[in-house]
Amino acid sequence: MAQVEATTERIVAADAETVFDAVADYENTRAKLLPEHFSEYEVREGGDGEGTLVHWKLQATSKRVRDCLLEVTEPKDGELVEKDRNSSMVTTWTVTPAGEGRSRVVVRTVWDGAGGIGGFFERTFAPKGLGRIYDAVLANLAANVEK
């Protein structure tokens, strides 16, 4: 079983603290950032960064729906990690300063891929598809925090 990775990033015209606070705000902001690929969004515990437990369904393709129950941690400043209790999927959000009033946001998702021919197709196509989904999330994030 090989690990599969999808990474996307964006420069956002807002300071790193503002951007990170928006990413970590599961109670109010996060649901507004999610495109149509996400459904059944529900904060089950917490709601602001570390200690949050959040649920959603992620429809990556017309046939592939992943039921996600994510535990949120903040291992270091500017980093938010979402670990799925239902799978090996881990998404890490990293927000760093990128010049005056600007931030770099990197979203990296990794999971244990399938074996065999199915795993080949997963490793080939899933990173691009998930990258497009998170590009949309980052575009919505930028629209939400940029002044």
How would you sum up this structure in a few lines?
By secondary structure, the chain is an alpha+beta fold.
Overview of this protein structure:
The protein is α+β, with helices and mostly antiparallel strands. It is 29% helix and 39% strand. It contains three helices and seven strands. It has a seven-stranded antiparallel sheet with strand order 1-7-6-5-4-3-2. β2 and β3 (53-59) form a beta hairpin. α1 packs across α3 (116-145). The chain is globular. The chain starts with a strand and ends with a helix. The model has no long low-confidence stretch (mean pLDDT 92).
The order of strands across the largest sheet is 1-7-6-5-4-3-2
- Percent of residues in beta strands? 35-45%
Strand/helix succession: EHHEEEEEEH
What is the β-strand count? 7
What gross morphology would you assign?
A: globular
The low-pLDDT segments are: none
Largest sheet: 7 strands, antiparallel
Average pLDDT, rounded to a whole number, is 92
Alpha carbon gyration radius? 15 Å
Structural class: alpha+beta
Q: How many individual helices?
A: 3
Which SSEs are present, and which pair or pack?
Blueprint lengths: L2 E10 L3 H9 L5 H4 L4 E8 L7 E7 L5 E9 L5 E6 L5 E8 L5 E10 L3 H30 L2
Antiparallel strand pairs: 1-7, 2-3, 3-4, 4-5, 5-6, 6-7
Helix pairs in contact: 1-3
Features:
7-stranded antiparallel beta sheet, alpha+beta, 3 helices, 147 residues
